[in-house]
Write a structure and sequence with these properties.
about 170 residues; alpha/beta; about 30% strand; globular
C-alpha cells in the first residue's frame, strides 16, 4: 500500500489495524463505511477486503487523496469506493444523501482536539444507521468524553501510544 510523504499522513500500524478488525469481526460484512481523515485509505480498503459493501473516503489534503486513489485502483475497488476532498473540521455537509453508514473510522492528527467537533458534525448529518459503530483512533494523551449527545463510548483499547475508542448511538 502506498503512503503520502510528509506530515499529513500517519498510517494506522498493522498490529492496531489487525486488532481493530478482530474486534469488529462480523460488523464489517455488508457495511457502508465512512472513513474520515482517511490518510492512505488503509482502513477502508481493509474493510472492503473483508466484505464491506461500500466506502466513502474523506480527507482534505491533495497528496493523501491522490495516494488513496492509487491504492483503491491497485486493489480494484473503484466501483465500491468514493473519494471526497473536504474539510471535515468545518462540517460534513458533503454527506447529504440517502446513504447511511454502519461503520465510521475517524483518525485525525493526534492531539488536534477536533474529535468532539467531528463527532458533533457526524451526528448533525443524521447519516448513521441504527447500531452504527464509530471507531476513533487517537493518541494516548488525548482523553475523549464517554458521551457526546447520543453517542456513548462502549469500549476503549490501548496499543502503545495509540488508542481506539468505540462509540455507538444510544436511544
Amino acid at each position: 500500500m502506498n503512503a503520502a510523504k510528509g506530515s499529513h499522513t500517519r498510517p494506522t500500524a498493522d498490529r492496531v489495524r489487525e486488532a481493530l478488525f478482530s474486534i469488529l469481526a462480523d460488523n464489517v460484512v455488508g457495511a457502508n463505511v465512512l472513513d474520515l481523515f482517511a490518510g492512505t485509505g488503509a482502513l477502508s480498503i481493509e474493510a472492503l477486503s473483508r466484505g464491506a459493501a461500500f466506502a466513502l473516503v474523506i480527507d482534505n489534503h491533495t497528496e493523501p487523496l491522490s495516494v488513496i486513489k492509487q491504492n483503491i485502483h491497485m486493489c480494484q475497488l473503484e466501483t465500491r469506493c468514493r473519494i471526497i476532498k473536504w474539510d471535515i473540521r468545518k462540517n460534513l455537509a458533503c454527506l447529504k444523501s440517502d446513504l447511511r453508514f454502519d461503520l465510521v473510522f475517524i483518525d485525525p492528527p493526534y492531539n488536534s482536539g477536533v474529535i468532539p467537533i467531528v463527532l458533533n458534525h457526524l451526528l448533525s448529518t443524521q447519516s448513521l444507521s441504527p447500531n452504527a459503530r464509530i471507531v476513533v483512533e487517537h493518541g494516548s494523551q488525548e482523553s475523549l468524553p464517554e458521551a457526546i449527545h447520543t453517542l456513548m463510548q462502549y469500549d476503549q483499547r490501548k496499543y502503545g501510544q495509540t488508542v481506539l475508542s468505540f462509540y455507538q448511538e444510544i436511544g
